[in-house]
Write a structure and sequence with these properties.
mainly alpha, Growth Hormone, Chain: A, 19 helices
């Protein structure tokens, strides 16, 4: 009996991940090219991306705590997706006014950049309820959704113009609302009634932050993610510029993004198989090491074809990192604040990484060129990998948490 609800949940969560990733790709994957056509510089784009990250540093832990405590994942995702539809049209309406255009991008990043963590925790909770929910499949379909969106949108924009990205984005967000509405709900783990049932007190936001700050293993990982994240953010934002430097078009960008996402799928899909043979910490170590390799591959790619093929390293890095990260967070943080812990890594670590990887990276690209900037990011990734190796020496029984 448990298998059937688990399989149904897997199907709808897989669809939700695919559609949400596709929507994010259509807007943010082609955003740099759209803005470049209107004369926006790399440093301006980098500044806006930094502001997006700083805004998410505040909003994501707050949304994560609200989801842990008051608003279940299902309702939160519907609210955010519904808000994303009108917000998505703010940019084309204000593209000639830089301040307003920047505000529209920041606002959409707040509503959309948290989809992944919300789906991740939802997946874990439904698997705990029913069993048989395969995280690798649900997240793997997210990669397929991103890849299909990148390829289809890239060809479409080549034919009819990139300005249609906003209409296509709205359609996909509408579809996301339908899929989420059909998916089984779960209660908030930090809700007062749930905690009373479990014989525990609800954790306040301040207490949650204090618990995480005292967790040495968590904090070392947070800083590791910060340094490695600089390269992630830099490549994520300026990959379209790398494509343009090599003489590529929107279609070539779509191919590169498709290769990136398709490479993730087999590693996410098979995660439940190969993860049985390795500890969660060793899987994290391998995936973070591959981020260093990914930066080097981007740095040394001699032509457009090799730059596109370098995206294959995404599977060995992000494709393993993402499912391993979710279970790693469950392994080293209290269950009641798992969503909060995940969103802090993604927002606080991501925000600071964006300052260096996007804003400062944009300035460096203009002053030094994109390849010297890429070399600096690679050096920081090596430091981040070293910090993770240090975190492995901290035993789980030393972190002083009650799960």
């Amino acid at each position: 009996m448990k298998g059937k609800p688990g399989k149904r949940a897997t199907v709808f969560l897989a669809l939700g991940n695919a559609v949400s990733n596709g929507g994010v790709c259509i807007y943010f994957g082609f955003l740099v090219m759209y803005l470049s056509q209107y004369g926006y510089t790399e440093s301006w784009i980098g500044l806006v991306m930094m502001l997006c990250a700083l805004a998410n540093m505040v909003s994501q832990p707050l949304i994560g705590y609200l989801t842990d405590t008051y608003v279940p994942n299902k309702q939160m995702l519907i609210i955010l997706a519904a808000a994303s539809i009108p917000i998505g049209f703010f940019l084309p309406a204000s593209v000639s006014i830089p301040v307003v255009a920047a505000f529209s991008i920041i606002l959409l990043s707040i509503t959309e950049q948290i989809y992944g963590p919300l789906f991740d925790v939802w997946t874990v909770r439904l698997n705990e309820r029913h069993g048989g929910v395969d995280y690798g499949i649900t997240r793997g379909f997210g990669s397929i959704g991103y890849a299909l969106a990148a390829m289809i949108a890239g060809k479409c924009f080549d034919a009819v113009g990139i300005q249609w990205m906003f209409v296509l984005h709205a359609v996909v967000m509408g579809l996301l609302i339908v899929v989420v509405a059909l998916t089984e709900n779960v209660p908030c783990d930090n809700q007062k009634t749930v905690q009373e049932t479990n014989g525990q007190q609800r954790v306040s936001m301040a207490k949650a932050l204090s618990m995480l700050a005292k967790n040495k293993k968590y904090m070392l990982f947070l800083f590791s993610y910060l340094f490695i994240g600089v390269g992630m953010k830099f490549v994520g934002l300026f990959y379209p510029i790398l494509i343009e430097v090599k003489g590529g078009t929107e279609g070539d960008l779509g191919i590169g993004l498709s290769i990136m996402s398709l490479s993730e799928f087999p590693f996410m899909f098979l995660y439940s198989k190969y993860s049985k043979h390795f500890s969660i910490e060793k899987l994290m170590m391998f995936s973070l090491g591959m981020y260093v390799v990914r930066d080097i591959a981007m740095l040394l790619a001699p032509n457009l074809l090799m730059l596109e093929l370098a995206q294959v390293t995404q599977g060995l890095s992000f494709g393993i990192f993402l499912p391993a990260f979710l279970f790693y967070m469950n392994y080293i943080t209290p269950r009641r604040i798992t969503t909060t812990a995940i969103t802090i890594v993604g927002s606080a670590g991501g925000a600071l990484a964006s300052v260096a990887g996007t804003f400062l990276g944009g300035i460096m690209v203009e002053q030094l060129g994109i390849y010297p900037s890429m070399l600096c990011c690679t050096g920081l990734a090596v430091i981040g990998f070293g910090l993770y190796l240090a975190s492995m020496k901290v035993k789980r029984d030393e972190i002083g948490i009650t799960v």
